[in-house]
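Item description
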Amino acid sequence: MNNKKGRLIVIAAPSGTGKGTILDYMKQQRPEINTSISVTTRQPRVDELHGVSYYFVSRERFLEMIEDDEFLEYAEYIGEYYGTPKKPIYDLVEAGQDVILEIEVQGAKQILSLDYDILAILIVPPDMEELERRLRGRGTDTQQQLTARLERAKEELAQSSLFTHIVVNDDYIRAAMEIMDILDA
């Protein structure tokens, strides 16, 4: 029987930095990678599927999940809730498997306080102009939401000292390879 616990690997980034794209590439290269699926109250984007991209739930259901202590971490971000369900993560870690948590910086701060072997990686944009270009390119936010995301990104980037590694996403393949090297070290 395996008594070694797995690691929690936090990969956090401001919205629009490309963490989802990087993780998608990593999963193509290494299908054995375990990643968490977050729960959110926001509406799905065109290419997102329930149970694959996120678990999409109502605000009422999310609040019930908070009340029932079902989250490892959760945060409100630009008017919507996001959270990582505990049970699937604990099951994998207790079975000795590493799990990547793709989360926002606010959630990462909650995870870093847990009593687990945690590797914390922050993905950052090359600069704020590039981040704004990426967010505008999505075409999913109002000007007010875009402004809020950019302000939040500045606050999150100011907390980079919480992380053991910082990876610049100037090219998603290069950034993914750098993260895989960090995981292998």
Summary: The first strand starts at residue 8 and ends at 12. DSSP finds seven helices and eight strands in the chain. The beta strands are 8-12, 39-40, 55-56, 71-77, 80-85, 99-103, 118-124, 165-168. The chain has a mean pLDDT of 91.
